[in-house]
Amino acid sequence: xxxxxxxxxxxxxxxxxxxxxxxxxxxxxxxxxxxxxxxxxxxxxxxxxxxxxxxxxxxxxxxxxxxxxxxxxxxxxxxxxxxxxxxxxxxxxxxxxxxxxxxxxxxxxxxxxxxxxxxxxxxxxxxxxxxxxxxxxxxxxxxxxxxxxxxxxxxxxxxxxxxxxxxxxxxxxxxxxxxxxxxxxxxxxxxxxxxxxxxxxxxxxxxxxxxxxxxxxxxxxxx
Length: 223
What we know:
The protein has about 220 residues and is of the alpha+beta class. It has one domain (about 20-220): Sandwich (Jelly Rolls). It has helices at about 45-60, 85-105, 165, and strands at about 20, 35-40, 65-70, 110-115, 130-140, 145, 175-180, 185-190, 200-205, 215-220. The strands form two sheets. It has a seven-stranded mixed β-sheet, with helices on one face. A three-stranded antiparallel β-sheet has the order 7-6-9, with no helix packed on it. The longest helix is centred in the middle third of the chain and has 19 residues, at about 85-105.
């Protein structure tokens, strides 16, 4: 298993509920009551990205990969198409699953890998989960909204059918942050104890005309 080191003290911006994780061990800050989003940047792996781009072009993962897994890849790696870079993807997914299992103490993980041509969840929303990990391998990364820049009463039905830009949900567009590719993003949901009305507000980014494809992996704890 991957050891999770004790995190150094990091002070999030007051009201932001976001914590940058300079080191992998800093991801434990997601357990802080005052934190809903924690992000750890990682360098991209060009060969892995090229593999997924080729898979996107052939449509071999058009229906995605979705299953409940443990930390060993034998149960799911066979579902990935052959190609140069496949082993790098398997190794990275195994790394993320092991990290998530140790971080949350769950025995198994719900893994979803999707190659998308359009935004999966284009409107700002909160998840009915405990903690979700996201990583965008290529394409625009997940976006979240700073707590100080939002009116939570305009989420969901409160928007009265209006777009996020018109409903009053987004008080300040500068409060929208986009994760870089390959970054690990932890999003605390409404099912986290004591977090019923404070889940991280996030969305899938709008499609980019110059790079319409997006490859995203998400992990959820399974007990």
